[in-house]
Amino acid sequence: MNTVEKYNQYVNTSMVAAVQPVVFDRAKGALVYDEAGQRYIDCFAGIAVTAAGHSNTDIIEAAKVQLDKYVHCCSYVYYSKPVADLAEKLAQITPGRLKKTFFANSGAEAIEGGMRMAKTYTKKHEFIALQASFHGRSYATLSVTGNMGRKTRGGPYMVGCSFAPPPYCYRCPFNLEPETCGMRCAEYIEDIIKFDTYDDVAAFIAEPVMGEGGIIAPPEAYFKKVKEVLDRHDILLFVDEVQSGFCRTGKMFAIEHYGVEPDIMAMAKGIASGFPLSAFIARDEIADVFRPGEHLTTFGGNAVSCAASLANINFLEQERIAEKVTEKGRFLLERLGRMKARYPIIGDVRGKGLMVGIELVKDKIKTPAVEETKTLRKSCLEKGLLVGVGGVWANVLRIQPPLVITEEELDEALAIIERSLKKL
Ligand SMILES: Cc1ncc(COP(=O)(O)O)c(C=O)c1O
User: Fold this and answer.
1) Which residues line ligand 1 (CB under 6 A)?
2) Cα(60)–Cα(275) distance, rounded to whole angstroms?
3) Whole-Å CA distances, 322 to 17, 64, 122, 296, 373
4) For 70, which DSSP code?
5) Residue (of 249, 245, 206) closest to 357 by Cα position
């Protein structure tokens, strides 16, 4: 049996409509090759993971050095140098007073742990999240995920979760214009607190740039307004940087675009460019709230993943990847903006850095072009380009390549998208 046949027989894929028909053989930078030797430009990076590029030499080297020493010790039972070094580095690169890290394995696990910490610290029990958000597939993280499509047949969920309207300017929940709206969606959190909660909210949890919801970057003033509301009610700001962190948006962390200091931050995906690792970080007095036995994970802070992560962050810093991502993102948005003028099916082009979405619509009333988005993705793949799909209606093409993608590769990717658009 070949790989696809074995998948069909033995891998549970019932939760995905289809596995993309590419059998990975090797990958380097932003290029992927399948078993038949076919080359693809990767504009999805394994869902925004391989930030420093596939098979980054520095990261592989660091991982190999650690592999030769030891793989696992359980980093909460014994001391592990890569864990200590990485935690110190995260304290340096994360905003404000964020300082102490707990390491876990997946984005969901980091969010779930951070939620527990928020409740324990505040002695409060409710959460407010955003409509159209995504925070993971575990019980608590699905409870704060604002998307029915992800939650169907999994309920009932945790009590005490309320949802605020998203800062989704293209489909403003209040039908307002960004220039004159006065950040109604942020102010509305005050109403949510007043009408939907029992005044027991531990944290407001949000992605600084929403990923799965369709690459939604809130307007510049959004988080400052949100923070004003939260401060009035002693509610923590819990930022989910799982997808937007590690230079993806042109800053080390996307919340830096908004000039507010989070109380808790979760990260994963780009943290180690493909090695499984996640984390949540908080300032001392919040992080220190757990008592012995209240939290742990066996694999969290794996020595090889932490060594890889440190090399990953050093690479991002030394190569000035954040600045380069800003430039590449500008180039990408400018080119896609011109494409939007030529193809009416493109309703909106948006994003920050190399976290970019193309929302496809059927008409002037913005009917989501769902089938067309599927076709576009398929057509791109046939022409050698890997892209993602997201959005509440699955009508947003996602461009989230390894951050080391070259301008020539982006150019080639854009040409493929345009050729595929022509065929729709
Ligand atoms: C913003 C955000 N939070 C959490 C998660 C969950 O991460 P994981 O799939 O590693 O559990 C994701 C995954 O896509 C995400 O995009």
Assistant:
1) 47, 106-108, 111, 134-136, 207, 211-212, 240, 242-243, 268
2) 10
3) 34, 26, 34, 33, 29
4) -
5) 249
Q: Are 20 and 381 in contact (CB under 8 A)?
A: yes
Give me ligand 1 centre to Cα 108, in Å: 6
**Tell me, what DSSP letter sits at residue 256?**
G
Please tell me the distance between residue 80's alpha carbon and the centre of ligand 1 in angstroms.
26
Q: Residue 404 — very low, low, confident or very high, per pLDDT cuts 50/70/90?
A: very high
Instruction: Give the atom of ligand 1 at the shortest distance from the alpha carbon of 141.
Output: 4
- Residue position matching structure tokens 């890569």: 82
| β pairing state of 201-206 and 126-130 | parallel
Cα–Cα distance list, 315 to 5, 60, 90, 151, 233 (Å) = 38, 12, 14, 37, 40
CB 386 within 8 A of CB 41: yes
Local confidence band at 300 (pLDDT 50, 70, 90 cut-offs)? very high
193-216: b (≥16 Cβ within 10 Å) or e:
beeebeeebbbbbbbbbbbbbbbb
Band of the pLDDT at 209, cuts 50, 70, 90?
A: very high
Residues 6+ apart with CB under 8 A from 366: 170, 171, 347
Task: Report CA-CA distances (Å) from 401 to 84, 256, 325, 406.
Answer: 30, 21, 10, 10
Q: In this predicted structure, what is the pLDDT of residue 192?
A: 98
> To the nearest whole percent, how much of the chain has pLDDT over 90?
100
Q: Find the mean pLDDT for residues 254-275.
A: 98
Q: Which atom of ligand 1 is nearest to the CA of 108?
A: 11
Give the pLDDT band of residue 27 (cuts 50, 70, 90): very high
Task: State pTM to two decimals.
Answer: 0.98
Q: What is the mean pLDDT of residues 72-79?
A: 96
Ligand 1 centre distance from Cα of residue 1 (Å): 32
